[in-house]
Design a protein that fits this description.
The structure is a single chain. By secondary structure, this protein is α/β, with parallel strands linked by helices. The protein folds into two domains: 107 residues, 2-Layer Sandwich (Nucleotidyltransferase, domain 5), CATH 3.30.420; 100 residues, ATPase, nucleotide binding domain (Nucleotidyltransferase, domain 5, 2-Layer Sandwich). Helix content is 32%, strand content 26%. It has a six-stranded mixed sheet, with helices on both faces. A hairpin with a 2-residue loop joins β9 and β10. α4 packs across α8 and α6 packs across α7.
């Protein structure tokens, strides 16, 4: 990136934050801008997404872009195609498409950064799948918990993602979510757990030591990525996860 663009990126105040989900794409410009959205799904390619966002933005100006992506991001680049969207995400040139500096991060990690208030926090995103991010003293630890085996040959996502909720029904799904929260909280020795994602509201009262997040925190996290001297340590995923194309 040329020196002038690097300086602009460091000083960015009007950031376009894009939260990419399996069912919807949401975006906002600046801290108090209107949050807008449109449907995504298995046909949504990055080119189609960027074109739609730019058309909806019209003449709205922004200096930089943050993208929360529902999949593996390694060293700021998408490293694996998403499970619930179309193809073409790996290697896509977002900077060329938007014409501005772009930072890409896992979507759960972006919302986790926006929700973080110190210490050792485990963030769990209950949505189409299961997103999970651990932040320890400001260092973001990538995980791919959702696609790891859990019980009876099924993954964590099979139990507590949207497929699991529809298959098992809300009552059994809530019970499974609380069991998963307890297991992961103990495994990661978290000081506190934050629940985000579109299905967090379906859980009812969260267990002790767990607080419900706000999906709008994803936009806070996207802004924090561009704050000068923010000090976010984005640690790459372990080798075993990278070898399997996972975060």
């Amino acid at each position: 990136m040329p020196a002038k663009r690097r300086a602009t990126a460091r000083a960015a105040r009007r950031v376009l934050v894009v939260d990419v989900g399996g069912t919807h794409v949401k975006f906002r410009v600046a801290p108090r801008g209107l949050i807008r959205e449109f449907a995504s799904g298995p046909e949504m390619s990055p080119a189609r997404m960027t074109s739609r966002i730019r058309a909806l933005l019209g003449s709205a100006r922004y200096q930089a872009v943050s993208i929360g992506y529902p999949g593996l991001v390694f060293r700021g680049r998408i490293a694996a195609e998403p499970h619930h969207l179309g193809k073409g995400w790996v290697g896509y040139d977002f900077e060329r498409a938007f014409g501005k500096p772009v930072r890409v991060i896992n979507d759960a990690a972006m919302q986790a950064i926006g929700s973080y208030s110190g210490g050792r926090m485990l963030f769990l995103g209950l949505g189409t799948g299961l997103g999970a991010t651990l932040i320890i003293d400001g260092v973001v630890e990538p995980t791919e918990i959702g696609h790891m085996p859990y019980r009876h040959g099924l993954t964590f996502e099979d139990y507590v993602g949207e497929r699991g909720r529809k298959r098992r029904g809300n009552r059994r799904w809530r019970k499974a979510v609380k069991a998963v929260i307890g297991d992961l909280e103990a495994a990661f020795e978290a000081d506190y757990v934050v629940l985000g994602g579109g299905n967090a509201a379906r859980l009812g009262k969260p267990p002790p030591g767990v607080r419900r997040g706000d999906n709008r925190k994803a936009f806070v996290g996207g802004l924090r990525l561009w704050q000068p001297h923010a000090g976010w340590g984005l640690r790459p995923p372990p080798r075993s996860a990278r070898a399997h194309g996972k975060q």
